[in-house]
Specification:
With 100 residues, the chain is mainly α. Helix content is 78%, strand content 4%.
Length: 100
């Protein structure tokens, strides 16, 4: 990749990031759009976790990772600490891999 391509991509990225504030100016977003944008981070995180947990090589795969995430969800649902959630996921995933 040449320096011209790197600079062009950097300029395009900067332009796209600047487009939102420039277009909106000082106006507030509509309430319906604000509600949607407030939910986007949680939805994106859930999608990333699902893709990393339930797929392998572009195909559906239910393996030890899915069991570990299910166990972590159960601990989180019971309001366990973050450390307990992670430790449970690690331990259950390792146990399933050891058995299987």
């Amino acid at each position: 990749m040449t320096w011209a391509a790197v600079l062009a991509l950097a300029a395009g990225t900067y332009a796209m990031k600047a487009a939102g504030p420039v277009v909106l100016g000082g106006r507030a977003l509509p309430a319906s759009l604000t509600r949607v944008t407030d939910l986007l981070p949680a939805a994106l995180l859930a999608a990333l976790v699902a893709v990393q947990t339930l797929t392998a090589d572009g195909r559906w795969s239910l393996d030890a990772r899915a069991v570990g995430v299910a166990a972590a969800i159960a601990v989180a649902w019971r309001r366990g600490s973050f450390l307990a959630v992670v430790a449970t996921a690690v331990a259950v995933t390792a146990a399933v891999r050891l058995v299987g």
